[in-house]
Design brief:
This protein is α/β, with parallel strands linked by helices. It has two domains: 237 residues, HAD superfamily/HAD-like (Rossmann fold); 56 residues, no CATH class. The protein is 43% helix and 13% strand. The strands form two sheets. It has a six-stranded parallel β-sheet, with helices on both faces. Strands 4-5 form a two-stranded antiparallel ribbon. Strand 7, helix 13 and strand 8 form a beta-alpha-beta unit. The relative contact order is 0.16.
Length: 333
Amino acid sequence: MTLAIPHRALVASIAIATATLHSVSAFAGNDPLPSWNEGEAKASIIAFVESVIDPAAPTYVPEAARIAVFDNDGTLWSEQPAYFQALYALDRLKEKAKADPSILTSDTLKAAAAGDMKGAMAGGEKGLLEIVNVSHSGLSVDDFKADAHEWLTTAKHPTTGMTFATMTYQPMNELLRYLRDEGFTTYIVSGGGVDFIRAIAPEAYNIPVHQVVGSEGTTKYVVSDGVPSLMKEGGLSFLDDKVGKPVGIERFIGVRPIFAAGNSDGDYQMLEYVTAGEGPRFGLIVHHTDAEREFAYDREGHIGVLNQALDDAAKEGWLVVDMKKDWATIWTD
């Protein structure tokens, strides 16, 4: 049985000893997080993990309960100047509009088809949903995943010139691997579309599709010419963002995780829910502070706003990872 020890108290009690052990381990070539710079962030993560895997420790957590959840956009891969799925939707909308201009029934859709990002994003979440509805619907789930995978692995990001699938964060991939090596089960819990993420998650993060929780549109079972399939019909049946994330965790995972990572206020309720449970808990926020190697943003903007979660991190005992200071490298090799 685990003890109800808050994250901040747990780290304070064992960080010094763990940091020493980690230094020895790293010197021996066994560093589990080689792309993380030495410091409080790295030591705190390792301190927590070592505390829950030691059967002799009062903070021990059995493997079945070692569940870790990660946001995707801005946490595992980049999200600027827009969510990758939004950029995909814009590309596909342009293609559809060339074949049938009559689908452009609103100013938002017209702006999107013309490549006017500012105009397309002016409608906020409602406008984005409209773009996604038109661009994503009419495909089977299997065809959509195949198309999304092809786009993610061939289309180029407008700023970096990298393919979108390669813009995952090496330090976070190392963290995923480290947790799994120590008996954790890792899930993605994202506001992005579940089928879009599932199209690349096994390849990008070594996370199987059944461990991806995301927002869902309307899906219909059809049989055409004797062949059964699932068709995407647009709309939104479940929004896995903000207050929806704890709901999604319960609905699709069924147990409160002990580790949560996010990067924005959209992850606030997930971090709050996870770290409010009994026993050792860990909350992590990726703070985008590196304008040279990636992007720098937090309190203002239309993507990845980090305001309340940044203000409350110290009070809640959440670790704020400074991308510029704590990460030796950004992109996955």
